[in-house]
Write a structure and sequence with these properties.
Length: 164
Amino acid sequence: MTMPRAIYPGSFDPITYGHIDIVRRARKLFPKLIIAIVANPNKHSFFSVGEREQITRDALVEMGINNVEVTSYTGLLIDCAHKLGASAVVRGLRANSDFDYEFQMALTNRDLDSDIETVLFMTAGKYSFLSSSIVKEVKRFGGDVSSFVPSSVDQALTRKLAQA
Ligand code: ADP
């Protein structure tokens, strides 16, 4: 049996060690993993979608993670999954608070397309509080984010904040 191709969708604004933890776990089950960054015109993002793609690629190189593709999409996740030939959707779970949303999304996507399965990976305990929003907040006020994101991401945050 060949392993299905999986996509890991999300905002990745920017990618953190929490996302990278999920990538590492998912890779064990899905050798073909594609990070799909959502370009949602209704949701304001700190980095543009192009910047997020580049930052994600740089972070993967820095972490020595090969063979994970990075792409972006607009519209429905299931349409993106089809286009990429993926039959599994990877998402990460932190604490209880993620569960309701992830459950709702997974059931909605299954309703839209019963061939696509969502697989949830539990994060490492040390990343269970970590989010892209927290990283931006800490960085904005001059805090040290080196235990939250790879240094290439930290540098991208510094550059972006200097532009603002
Ligand atoms: P979205 O806006 O789609 O939630 P995010 O980039 O915030 O996009 O998250 C993408 C996925 O990664 C979600 O499933 C989220 O729960 C998961 N995730 C985010 N941060 C962490 C973390 N620290 N540990 C594990 N999973 C995480």
